[in-house]
Amino acid sequence: QAQLVESGGGLVQAGGSLRLSCAASGRTVRAYAMGWFRQAPGKEREFVAAITWSTGTTNYADSVKGRFTISRDNAKKTVYLQMNGLKPEDTAVYYCASDQNYSSYIPPARPGPYDFWGQGTQVTVSS
Fold first, then answer.
1. Contact 22, 35 (CB under 8 A)
2. Would you state the pLDDT for residue 79?
3. Which of 53, 67, 68, 74 has the fewest CB atoms within 10 Å around its CB?
4. What are the residues whose beta carbons fall under 8 Å from the beta carbon of 4, sequence distance 6 or more?
């Protein structure tokens, strides 16, 4: 069984911060990498950030570089997304996902390689 449970979403004003958490259990604890994606109403799901469990190698979308930071706690099998300087355009449902197999040194930015997905957590940024 594989399970990813996100938490930490909510409503925040522009310029504010939130920290999302993703707890992995079952098969997902042996994943190669973990990623965060988001989907706004009427838009396609887009990559936000990713990190490998073993080396901590990260990958970020250009739109969040310098504002968001992804990290992991191997002991707790939890991945975090610290979001600072939030903008209204960051409003979306944020999903955590696990990539079970090594594909490249840099964790992938495409949804395709990710095998398991969480249920999502809503982030709303007001202007």
1. no
2. 98
3. 74
4. 22, 23, 24, 25, 28, 96, 97, 98, 116, 117, 118
Q: What span, in angstroms and rounded, lies between the C-alpha atoms of 81 and 58?
A: 12
What confidence score (pLDDT) does residue 46 get? 97
For the chain (127 residues), the mean pLDDT of every run of 10, in chain order, is: 94 98 89 96 96 96 98 96 98 97 90 96 97
